[in-house]
From TrEMBL:
GO biological process terms, semicolon-separated: endoplasmic reticulum-plasma membrane tethering; lipid transport
Protein's organism: Edolisoma coerulescens
Domain C2, first and last residues per copy: 165-285
Protein name stated in the entry: ESYT2 protein
Gene3D superfamilies: C2 domain
Length: 356
């Protein structure tokens, strides 16, 4: 299958990733791939998990632990600046979810196939000529990390690739599903964090300037920085849409802000199935990957209701916390699906503009 998968990947690069990169920055508006050769080393699937609980009977959910380490030849250019770069190897490691739905009573038994990453995969790209590319005026604020984020986030939930296998399937409902729920994250405080700042060439241990990065899929939130405090109090609230469970997790990392490179203060991963089951979690969590530190979170699982019968009750309940969120707290969710357009006006470009 690998040669045919490569054809699909080339189409994905040209029709999906290339427009995403162009739209990310005005200086990248003439970005394009001039050659895409993924190589002969196929993708490896190191493990498969199939879900049997909390799953609709008309769907099959698979989580694939994928690993790809391959030599490739990908050339790209920005015509506006006559600048070229390339990729000679790519590594991708992560969990890809495959959903087969709806199951139907006729061949091929599966109505459509959906693919996406539950969280941002580990993506490493070995560039050639990237330094020259990033020296272009307007692009010097970019980095290979930002370019990786543009590419990887386009493949992370809620973004997905949906392939219809029969003509009757409602492709819009599969490509743009209604969220399963909303996760309200009260990012409250931490205790006993590690002191990363040092004085007198490391002899005297100081404090830290902690902040948090919160991720749900490709939704990312960053807290304010609390200066010189090992027991910071943030008291901030964030809301994230949850499109997939089981399998999706809340990821939190704490860092100490520094002028050069921020120091790591610990991490936390919470399965959203547990939050949905409890509806409300208000706990101190021990931080992972560090010797000490705890994080106080309050997590609320909010279910979408088809009518506005309880709207007044909801509005009353969120007034106490509304000042803690930058944009206020949500009481309802508006979902807008842009289907098509007709009879748009024709844009005429003056001839002198074309010639210039």
């Amino acid at each position: 299958m690998w040669p045919f998968i490569c054809q699909f990947i080339e189409k994905l690069f040209r029709e999906t990733i290339e427009p995403a990169v162009r739209g990310a920055n005005n200086h990248l508006s003439t970005f394009s791939f001039t050659k895409i050769d993924i190589g002969h080393q196929p993708l490896r699937i190191n493990g498969v998990k199939v879900y049997t609980e909390n799953v609709d009977k008309r769907q099959i959910i698979l989580d694939l632990q994928i690993s790809f380490v391959g030599n490739c030849e990908i050339d790209l250019e920005i015509k506006r600046y006559f600048c070229r770069a390339g990729v000679k190897s790519i590594q991708i490691h992560g969990t890809m979810r495959v959903i087969l739905e709806p199951l139907i009573g006729d061949m091929p038994l599966i109505g459509a196939l959906s693919l996406f990453f539950l969280r941002k995969p580990l993506l490493e790209i070995n560039w050639t000529g990237l330094t020259n590319l990033l020296d272009v005026p307007g692009l010097n604020g970019l980095s290979d990390t930002i370019i990786l984020d543009i590419i990887s986030n386009y493949l992370v939930l809620p973004n997905r690739i949906t392939v219809p296998l029969v003509s009757e399937v409602q492709i819009a409902q599969l490509r743009f599903p209604i969220p399963k729920g909303v996760l309200r994250i009260h990012f409250i405080e931490a205790q006993d964090l590690e002191g990363k700042d040092t004085y007198l060439k490391g002899i005297v241990k100081g404090k830290s300037d902690p902040y948090g990065i919160i991720r749900v899929g490709n939704q990312i939130f960053q807290s304010k920085v609390i200066k010189e405090n090992l027991n910071p109090k943030w008291n901030e609230v964030y809301e994230a849409l949850v499109y997939e469970h089981p399998g999706q997790e809340l990821e939190i990392e704490l860092f100490d802000e520094d002028p050069d490179k921020d120091d790591f203060l610990g991490s936390l991963m919470i399965d959203l199935i547990e939050v949905e089951k409890e509806r409300l979690l208000d706990e101190w969590f021990t931080l992972d990957e560090v010797s000490k530190g705890k994080l106080h979170l309050k997590l609320e699982w909010l279910t979408l209701m088809p009518t506005a019968d309880n709207l007044d009750k909801v509005l009353t309940s969120i007034r106490a916390d509304k000042d803690q969120a930058n944009d206020g707290l949500s009481s309802a969710l508006l979902i807008l699906y842009l289907d098509s357009a007709r009879n748009l006006p024709v844009s005429y470009i003056p001839m002198d503009t074309l010639l210039s």
